[in-house]
Amino acid sequence: MKSIESKLNTGLGLSLIVVFTLLGIGVSISIRLLMENHITVRLEHDAESLLAAVSIDPSGDPATIELLTDRINRVYDRVFSGHYFVIASDHKRIRSRSLWDQDLPVPPVLPGKVSARHMQGPENQNLLVRVAGYRKDDKDLVITVAEDLTPIDAYVQRLQIRYGLTVIVVLALLVYLQRQVLRQGLGPLDHTGRQIEALERGELERLSEDVPLELRPLVQQINQLLSVLRQRMERSRNALGNLAHALKMPLTLMNQLTDKRENIPDAGVRSEVQGQVRTIQTLIDRELRRARLSGARGSFGRLGLAHELNSLVEVVTQLYRDKALKIDLQIPAELEYSADREDMLELFGNLLDNACKWATSMVRISGARSDQLWVRIEDDGPGASGTELDQLRRRGIRVDEGKVPGYGLGLAIAQDVVQHYAGTMTLGRSDALGGFMVEVRLPLQRPEFRI
User: Fold this and answer.
1) Which of 271, 373, 377, 445 is deepest in the core (most CB within 10 A)?
2) Residues sharing a CB contact under 8 Å with residue 374, sequence separation 6 or more, in sequence order
3) To which H or E segment does residue 141 belong?
4) The domain made up of 300-443 is a member of CATH 3.30.565.10
5) Strand 83-88 and strand 93-95: pairing?
6) Do you find a cis peptide bond into 111, omega within 30 degrees of 0?
7) What residues does each domain of the chain span?
8) In this structure, is the dihedral angle defined by the CA atoms of residues 121, 125, 130 and 135, taken in order, positive or negative?
């Protein structure tokens, strides 16, 4: 979807083009009408001059009509000059010399009536024609006067070209100013957007409310929502912690009771009860870890994965020093990822611990980033059988339910973290080392978190 600034720039730009285009059309029509009115007035004066130059001898039969040429403008004597007249009576037509061998159609007009029209004249000239009826010395006359509008058309065309060039310059200037004004006006939106990004990275806890009045209610609602979410998350985590603390003492007591043979003489029943107690303890630990993950939202920073994984390698090397494991870390030193540090330590710590637990002599950690961040952890241990892998991959099967021995709580916690970051976790057998392989892929963009 286009940005608000782009939409406003496009809309205002098109509006300016339409306005200037309509204005140009209006100005062209107005100038043309103004000049035609001016020409019509001049034609009226010429017609009155021709009427005055007409001499009628009423003694003739019919009456004799003559035109006193010394009273006529010389422009009517020049052939195809663009200025023409025709004087018509019942029995005679007098044409201007400028018409040469051409004629103008003279419609019948009653005395006192005037009409104006456009018509094509000699040499395809665009003529404005004025036809008027007069009565002089009891004689009806129709005087037609015409003028070529070609010079006017050329002038209007030159005016339109100059106007168009001027409009292009003015539009460019207005669009530039418009973009600057919009950019300045929408600046608070950009600032708020950058603050939201910083909020997601954990650099801020709330948005600044020093924003325009139109934006302030939205920012205040976001801040209020963040505060409510933090409070609810804190209450949830506290409730889980309190529940775990409340259950810890009864579970400890149950463990002590089941350890005594006299309480449960049957060894099979005693073993079953002890297993169920351990399962309850495991589930409590798992949910407490999930609560910590959910509470870590928003506290993001740029992590150097090579450094963090190297720290984990040092820890597990000490934990499994009796196995003398070789841990091959193949992570680029510059590889970084935006995430909560505790989440990433929880994720890779559990996967690395599982790998070291079942490895015979070697564990390999490799990773890089392309369209996603990927990290692969492999070992040379027995791995999981095909049936066990199918169970682990099957949708809906929880890896901590005891169906696959040895890959319980640690793998379940890792799966929770990956889902929390909208990533994927692939399980399989290592082609290089022959043991268990787990590959984690996390999106580079800010994930849509899942609780």
Assistant:
1) 377
2) 367, 368, 439, 440, 441, 442
3) strand 139-148
4) yes
5) antiparallel
6) no
7) 4-154, 300-443
8) negative
pLDDT by residue, tens only, the chain of 451 residues: 567 777 887 888 888 888 888 988 888 888 888 888 888 899 999 888 888 888 877 665 555 778 887 778 888 888 888 899 998 887 788 888 888 888 888 778 888 899 888 888 888 888 999 999 988 887 888 999 999 988 888 888 888 888 889 888 988 898 888 888 888 877 787 888 888 877 776 667 788 888 888 778 888 888 888 888 778 777 776 777 777 777 777 777 777 777 666 666 767 776 777 777 777 777 676 666 666 654 444 445 678 888 999 999 998 888 888 888 899 999 998 888 888 787 888 889 889 998 998 899 999 999 998 888 999 999 998 888 878 777 776 543 444 444 434 445 678 778 888 888 888 999 989 988 989 999 999 988 655 444 4
Tokens of 70: 């010394």
Q: Are 358 and 406 in contact (CB under 8 A)?
A: yes
Helix (H, G, I), strand (E, B) or coil at 226: helix
CA distance to 53, 171, 303, 363, per residue, from 306 (Å): 110, 55, 9, 16
Structure-block tokens of residue 207: 């948005």
Cβ–Cβ under 8 Å, residues 297 and 449? yes
Its pTM surpasses 0.70: no
Stated length of the chain? 451
Please count the other Cβ atoms lying within 10 Å of the Cβ belonging to residue 331. Answer: 19
Task: Return d(Cα 84, Cα 293) in angstroms, integer.
Answer: 98
β-bridge partners, 376: 366, 439
Annotation: CATH topology of 4-154: Beta-Lactamase (3.30.450)
In the block, which residue shows the tokens 């100005």? 27
* Chain position carrying tokens 């970051």: 421
The percent of the chain in helix, strand and coil, each rounded to the nearest 5, is 55, 20, 25
Nearest Cα to Cα of residue 175 among 349, 17, 320, 339: 17
